[in-house]
Amino acid sequence: MYTLSQNTDLENMAFATLQSIGEPINIEELNEDELRRLVLVNLARLAVKGEWNGLLTAGGSEFNVELPKQSATTYSTSYMTNVATTPPYGSNTVQGGSVTTDMECWPFISPNSGNISKMYLGVNATVTNTVSMAIYSDDDGVPKTLLGYGDFDLSASTGSVSQTSFSATITLERGVQYWYAMKSSSANQPNMKKVDSDICATIGLGDTLSMTSTGKYMSINTEVAHGDALPSTITIGNATVGNFSGRPMFGLEF
Asked: Are 186 and 132 in contact (CB under 8 A)?
């Protein structure tokens, strides 16, 4: 246990690392000391991070949504996860249309622990624009720290467009909330596949209990314009209704 994790401090120790160390250990008397060390390190990790719920939920998550795991040993076909359609925020009614060029963020729960290997974006029509798809950490239910991003050239092709090159290694934990963000490089509006905003799940914030659009806040506005750089740490603007943007279809592979 200590040999495999000695170069990682507690603040940066991920649950996925502990899981990879612990999974091969058999529950038997011979391994009692290693199992005790595993529990001790996880307790110390949770104490440093302040994730006391992790003692009950294995990864510090506030959620109990069981998403189908991408696993080569589980399915006969390779799958990606469309995080725009997964619970609790997703929906499966798809429409196409223009998407705002300024930066917005949508929450999702990670289906896997590990590094993102590929991103997918649904493009209806080509346009002279490069869209950055970024992943941010969550802090008290709002996006916070940039984990990495991939750039999509929307002038190249339509359909399910993929990207395997990212600004950094993006490591997620299964069952933990993150945010995906879209920001254009130009004022040319992308024409994307997206969840119909009329039935898109909201993030719970609202200024009225009316069923009109003013009460359906679906994303976070960062006040970052299309010409701005992606911020490393997000300063929150307002929750947005989402009638203009909807929830862009966005796929992930691990």
From this structure: no
**Two tokens at 121?**
């974006």
Residue range 123-155, pLDDT digits in tens: 988 999 999 999 999 998 889 999 999 999 999
Same domain assignment for residues 104 and 36: no
Least confident of 29-38, 79-88, 207-216, 234-243: 207-216
Q: Is residue 86 part of a domain?
A: yes
Q: 178, 203 in Cβ contact below 8 A?
A: no
Same domain, 129 and 96: yes
Of 20 and 105, more confident:
105
Do residue 53 and residue 85 come from a single domain? no
Helix (H) / strand (E) element for 16: namely: helix 15-22
Q: What is the DSSP letter of 74?
A: T
Its domain, for residue 46, covers 2-57
Q: Is 144 helix (H, G, I), strand (E, B) or coil?
A: strand
**18-22, 81-85, 169-173, range with greatest mean pLDDT:** 169-173
